[in-house]
């Protein structure tokens, strides 16, 4: 009697779990999994993207991809972006989050101010910074002229030496607030008693940061790092708006190159191969990173 | 488990029904009234109004047909149309720029061949307009804008420094030198999107070698290639001008679309602007005073002793097409004609200062008249190389030209890259 009741309950529970999962899975399946599978299918075709005709070419697109020098440039730029994201964005975000978490007056005000860049639409952000870097009418050129650095004014987004740093700067400007909020949430979860206990035991602030704060927000940092890593590997919008991958490929990313091949040059098969490779790279990086940090946690 | 399956099935079926219900409803509507969709890129107020007026005229005459019009920004339009064509849900009427981009859609069998139907109206259109609508000897659309690129100049600055309108490149360079010496930027250029600078490259290469060189190189015949000396010389001239300071600092980072180079021109900080026919309309809207008092234009100067003539012009425009899979080809063609007819053309001139490609337009504005005369006097109107060539090759042409302006590539290197891509896309030269 008891047993059957429990079983019935079990059934009900499973029923509920499935009912809750199906809608999400349906959408995820149609718009994500199906899309990924189709991408891999398209990547084996010689296809313009508009025609009904396409030709199966096997791995030819991937072979072409490995010989394409521009793809190498794009991968390199993506790696640069990834490293700056993790090395610059996360520490800065952590600093800002710590500042906001402290008892300084006006943290609410600054929280809003710091978060503003994240609220702007990326297109508006891109155009705004494009105007900022404009060598003729831009604020940067104006300031440089005012302080006597006028001879160094160049087309910042047009010069192969400065385009990438300029774009990286804007990407950091846009994304630091995002990670700041995530880390801030992690900090709020740390109970105050821990710090109080540490103070009683004679720990200074530096020690409590290293021994309490950092270990306790490391899961948050780990999530943030994965997000920023995958995000920077598939990054597209600001670069597309500000430089379009130029000049001469100086800011070309895998995603902007994919767009160019697929939508500008009518090579949907080849673009799908780029997308496929991007998927594999992101997947490997994310899994690898999660695996490595998981081992550390166990220790 | 069974319940679970049943539940999943019910969910699936009900979702499917939801979608099915949606589509059958739409079909039922279509049977009663004909709906035609039009996609175009006239997003600014005046061009859109012209389009809407033409559609209203058509609807008044054909009350049974419902026309749904959508204006889409230039670059997103290209992506959107491609996706719609590939995804099987394209508009009935759409625009292209002629040339290689249009050719891709023709090759994919997406554009209706209207060679037969067009015979009854073809005589109403200007020759250059019809020519950009053609592929081989077949007509695939009708022109809705069509005009030459010119050198626009600031008349006030010319008067101030006592300059004469140049007809040769040497005279033009003299003017530029004088302007440069007086602290005026000789030529405004916003080359972030690459095509604005390409116009100068195309004109120079045509003036050096004549219009036929490019055509031969493109057709891979008569021993011409993209490494012909006219292309090299054009690159050398551009780099000479860059080094002499003819262009604004960082022009490859200035965005034409957001108005960077036009601002330099309107504010008299720069004296010339080498641009498409679209500039007249832009200028009239953005800087009406400047348009009234300062704006002048002349044909791109010739090079003494070189093969090109002043009557070979670079130009282009928009063509409106019918999707080959449209359910109502007859209605679509009637609409196509109305969207490019004389009334439309007149509206276009009056509202946007743009020549549309139809005959019998009354032009009151002397600047447009001049533009029109250039167009009509032209022996050859070469479509922009980047419109004319297949997109993959066009990209290399634009990238290398931008690199020429940026001094990061030599003219010989640039020509070599274009030729290498041409061999890949078009085949070896004969």
From TrEMBL, chain A:
Residues 75-291 form the ABC transmembrane type-1 domain. PROSITE patterns: ABC_TM1 (PS50928). InterPro entries: ABC_transporter_permease, MetI-like, MetI-like_sf. It comes from the Bacteria. One of its GO terms (biological process) is transmembrane transport. Keywords: Cell membrane, Membrane, Transmembrane, Transmembrane helix, Transport. GO terms for cellular component: plasma membrane. Its main location: membrane. It is a multi-pass membrane protein. Pfam families: BPD_transp_1 (PF00528). The chain crosses the membrane at residues 14-37, 79-100, 112-133, 139-158, 165-187, 268-292. It is found in: Cell membrane. Belongs to the binding-protein-dependent transport system permease family. This is Sugar ABC transporter permease. The lineage of its organism: Bacteria, Pseudomonadati, Spirochaetota, Spirochaetia, Spirochaetales.
UniProtKB/TrEMBL annotation, chain B:
The keyword Cell division does not apply. Residues 1-20 form the signal peptide. Keywords: Signal, Transport. GO terms for cellular component: periplasmic space. Its main location: periplasm. It is found in: Periplasm. The keyword Manganese does not apply. SUPFAM superfamilies: Periplasmic binding protein-like II. It comes from the Bacteria. Belongs to the bacterial solute-binding protein 1 family. PANTHER family: ARABINOSE-BINDING PROTEIN-RELATED (PTHR43649), OSMOPROTECTIVE COMPOUNDS-BINDING PROTEIN GGTB (PTHR43649:SF29). This is Extracellular solute-binding protein. It comes from Sphaerochaeta halotolerans.
């Amino acid at each position: 009697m008891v047993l059957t009741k429990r079983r019935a309950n079990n059934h009900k529970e499973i029923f509920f779990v499935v009912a809750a999962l199906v809608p999400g899975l349906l959408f995820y399946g149609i718009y994500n999994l199906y899309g990924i599978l189709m991408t891999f299918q398209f990547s084996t075709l010689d296809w313009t993207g508009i025609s009904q005709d396409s030709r199966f070419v096997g791995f030819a697109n991937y072979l072409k991809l490995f010989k394409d020098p521009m793809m190498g440039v794009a991968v390199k730029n993506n790696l640069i972006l990834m490293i700056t994201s993790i090395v610059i964005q996360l520490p800065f975000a952590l600093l800002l989050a710590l500042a906001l978490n402290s008892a300084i007056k006006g943290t609410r005000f600054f929280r809003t101010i710091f978060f503003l860049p994240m609220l702007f639409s990326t297109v508006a952000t891109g155009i705004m910074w494009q105007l900022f870097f404009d060598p003729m009418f831009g604020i940067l050129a104006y300031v440089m002229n005012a302080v006597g650095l006028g001879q160094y004014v160049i087309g910042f987004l047009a010069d192969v030496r400065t385009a990438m740093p300029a774009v990286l700067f804007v990407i950091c400007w846009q994304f630091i607030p995002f990670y700041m909020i995530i880390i801030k949430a992690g900090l709020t979860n740390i109970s105050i008693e821990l710090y109080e206990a540490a103070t009683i035991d004679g720990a200074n602030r530096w020690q409590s940061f290293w021994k309490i704060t950092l270990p306790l927000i490391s899961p948050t940092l780990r999530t943030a790092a994965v997000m920023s890593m995958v995000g920077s590997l598939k990054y597209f919008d600001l670069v597309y708006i500000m430089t379009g991958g130029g000049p001469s490929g100086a800011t070309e990313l895998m995603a902007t190159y994919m767009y160019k091949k697929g939508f500008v040059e009518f090579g949907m098969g080849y673009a799908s191969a780029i997308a496929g490779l991007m998927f594999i790279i992101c997947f490997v990086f994310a899994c690898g990173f999660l695996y490595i940090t998981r081992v550390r946690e166990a220790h | 488990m069974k319940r679970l399956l049943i539940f999943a099935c019910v969910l699936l079926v009900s979702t499917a029904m939801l979608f099915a219900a949606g589509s059958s409803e739409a079909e039922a509507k279509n049977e009663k009234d004909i709906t035609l969709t039009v996609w175009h890129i006239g997003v600014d107020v005046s061009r859109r109004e012209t389009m809407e007026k033409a559609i209203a005229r058509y609807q008044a005459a054909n009350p049974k047909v419902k026309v749904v019009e959508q204006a889409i920004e230039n670059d997103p339009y290209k992506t959107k149309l491609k996706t719609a064509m590939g995804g099987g849900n394209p508009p009935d009427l759409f625009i292209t720029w002629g040339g290689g981009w249009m050719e891709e859609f023709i090759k994919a069998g997406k554009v209706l061949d209207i060679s037969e139907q067009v015979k009854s109206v073809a005589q109403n259109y200007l020759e250059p307009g019809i020519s950009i609508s053609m592929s081989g000897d077949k007509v695939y659309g009708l022109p809705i804008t069509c005009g030459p690129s010119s050198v626009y100049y600031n008349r006030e600055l010319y008067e101030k420094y006592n300059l004469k309108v140049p007809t040769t490149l040497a005279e033009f360079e003299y003017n530029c030198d004088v302007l440069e010496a007086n602290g005026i930027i000789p030529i405004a250029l916003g080359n972030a999107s690459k095509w604005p600078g390409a116009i100068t490259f195309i004109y120079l290469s045509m003036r050096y070698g004549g219009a036929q060189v490019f055509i031969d190189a493109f057709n891979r015949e008569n021993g011409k290639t993209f490494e012909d000396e006219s292309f090299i010389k054009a690159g050398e001239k551009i780099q000479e001008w860059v080094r002499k300071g003819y262009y604004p600092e960082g022009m490859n980072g200035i965005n034409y679309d957001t108005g960077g180079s036009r601002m330099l021109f309107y504010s008299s900080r720069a004296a010339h602007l080498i641009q498409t026919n679209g500039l007249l309309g832009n200028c009239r809207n953005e800087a009406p005073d400047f348009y009234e008092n300062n704006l002048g234009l002349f044909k791109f100067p010739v090079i003494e002793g070189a093969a090109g003539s002043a009557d070979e012009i670079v130009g282009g425009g928009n063509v409106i097409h019918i999707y080959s899979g449209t359910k109502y080809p007859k209605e679509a063609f009637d609409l196509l004609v109305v969207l490019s007819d004389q009334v439309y053309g007149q509206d276009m001139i009056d509202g946007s200062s743009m020549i549309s490609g139809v005959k019998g337009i009354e032009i009151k504005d002397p600047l447009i008249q001049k533009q029109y005369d250039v167009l009509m006097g032209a022996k050859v109107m070469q479509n922009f190389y980047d419109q004319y060539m297949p997109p993959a090759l066009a990209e290399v042409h634009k990238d290398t030209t931008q690199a020429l302006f940026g001094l990061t590539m030599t003219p010989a290197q640039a020509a070599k890259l274009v030729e290498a891509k041409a061999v890949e896309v078009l085949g070896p030269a004969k």
